[in-house]
Amino acid sequence: MENIKLSFEKDSAIALKNIKLQRALNKAIDQFRNVRWRAVREFQDWEQLRVSARRIKEWTIDHLDGYLEMLEANVINAGGNVHWASDANEACEIILDIAQKHKVKSVVKSKSMATEEIELNHSFEGAGIKVVETDLGEYIIQLANERPSHIIAPAIHKTKDDISKLFVEKLNTPYFNEPEDLTKIAREKLRNEFLNADMGVSGVNFSVAETGTIVIVENEGNARLTTTVPRIHVALMGIEKVIPRFEDLPIFLNILIRSATGQKMSTYVSLITGPKRNSDLDGPEEFHLVIMDNGRSKILSNEETRESLYCIRCGACLYICPVYKKVGGHSYGWVYQGPIGAIITPQLLGIDKASDLPFASSLCGACKDVCPVKINIPRVLLELRARVINDKRVGARFLLRIAVKLWRFTMENTSFYNLALRLSYILQKPWIRHGRLVSLPFPFSRWTKKRDFPAISKIPFRKQWKEIKDLEF
Ligand code: SF4
After folding, report:
1. The domain boundary residue, chosen from 294, 328, 343
2. Of the residues 60, 163, 240, 444, which has the fewest C-beta atoms closer than 10 A?
3. Closest residue (by CA) to atom 8 of ligand 1?
4. 158 Cβ partners below 8 Å, 6+ apart?
5. Over residues 110-120, mean pLDDT
6. pLDDT tens-place string over residues 140-178
7. CA–CA gap between residue 37 and residue 110 (Å, rounded)
């Protein structure tokens, strides 16, 4: 994580020219928006559900230390082991240590953004341990040696044809172009991996403090196999995943599943409390829960941005975001994409490593409207933008302050505003082509390089409007 430096500006410019990506995103995102809309509309008290979920999150995050201790005690009571990791390196070391102590040779993984965050696969591979992703989307991404481009649909950027060719190249299969055939191939390959794995690694959607239960939501059954077939199960969670009581769970299952996939309920909801008991038919002999901080307590300590920790990773803000729909997930450069990526990545990695991301938004507010836990993403983005500006060199800050003061003076002073308009109209002439301003000189070129800028009209809008009104009445 130390060497990461993201460049949304550069990567999104490349993505915008990728026609295949645009097609894949348009199709998948339009489909999703419709199903989510239906799932939300049919739930009578959706707004009340959001309010309740938000309140529980606020309360839990404000009392996080107590609930995490309660969770630890109850996991241990149920026969499990709990480990605390302060950062990504420590989390990898803990999990690798468990694997090496048990002479693990092969690991199956179910989808987990937390394990992506710590790049756990690299650690396993570096130690000579085979690791296989078992969620279909993640399996495709692993074969393609790429990063996920969506927190719920990791391979959303790939077309059927891309996947068919990938399977031909990496799995030596014939070319099939039907999703059913491709799924069947993956299922057959993965079945053996489950049966031969010594360890299963999963993420955690929620953990219930009062019972020590972890909850995993999925549709493919791979998470259930990952957590029950191998003899050891390791679950990795960020500190923010805990909820206080079992009776809170239906609220969160409802808002997560409806927001994530538009279903009323996912095909599998696994509730895991400790390892296999004597009376159980299956399950792991050992259960380990790794609770990871990795920059989260820094977010917790800042009241302005703390609500970023309420996120339940439903992905709804990605689907609704007009910026994500155009540039796709890889432009965000790291594990979390879209609006949630734009606020969480700069906070987890450091604002200096992701200073473009708070600006990767039109601030339209659609993300805030769909977020099931009502995170005010635009407000957090503005707060992070202010931090980026404050981090800049004194000279840049000084110039910005002068520019804002000048803007304010112009806006408050009608005759100066009119004079500025008149002057701009005259000065813009050398840069006008077909009624538009093109490639203005520095510093204005930073705007025209990427955006349209209509030429300033000779007749001000006020005057034009007045003339229309006079004609009408
Ligand atoms: S910020 Fe809200 S909408 Fe976006 S992933 Fe998190 S919970 Fe879902």
Report:
1. 294
2. 444
3. 314
4. 24, 140, 144, 166
5. 95
6. 999 999 999 999 999 999 999 999 999 999 999 999 889
7. 28
Q: Is residue 303 part of a domain?
A: no
Pick from 370, 391, 412: which residue ends a domain? 391
Q: Is 371 in the pocket of ligand 1 (CB under 6 A)?
A: yes
The residue whose CA is least distant from atom 2 of ligand 1 is: 371
Are residues 30 and 145 located together in one domain of the fold? no
Sign of CA dihedral 29, 31, 36, 41: positive
- The pick from 113, 256, 318, 375 for probing ligand 1's pocket by mutation, whose C-beta has the most ligand atoms within 8 angstroms, reads 375
Domain co-membership, 290 together with 317 = no
Q: Is-contact 363 381, C-beta < 8 A?
A: yes
301 domain-assigned: no
Mutational test site, ligand 1, from 367, 371, 376, max ligand atoms within 8 Å of CB: 371
CA-nearest residue, atom 3 of ligand 1: 371
Q: Return phi, psi of residue 267, to 5°.
A: -65, -40
317 lines ligand 1 (CB under 6 A): yes
C-beta 344 within 6 A of ligand 1: no
pLDDT digits (tens, 9 = 90+) for 263-294: 999 999 999 999 999 999 899 999 999 999 99
* Residues 108 and 185 occupy one common structural domain: yes
Domain total in the chain: 3
3-class state of residue 167 by DSSP = helix
- Residue 410: give the domain boundaries: 396-472
In sequence order, what are the beta bridge partners of 238?
A: 292
Same domain, 67 and 190: yes
349 lines ligand 1 (CB under 6 A): no
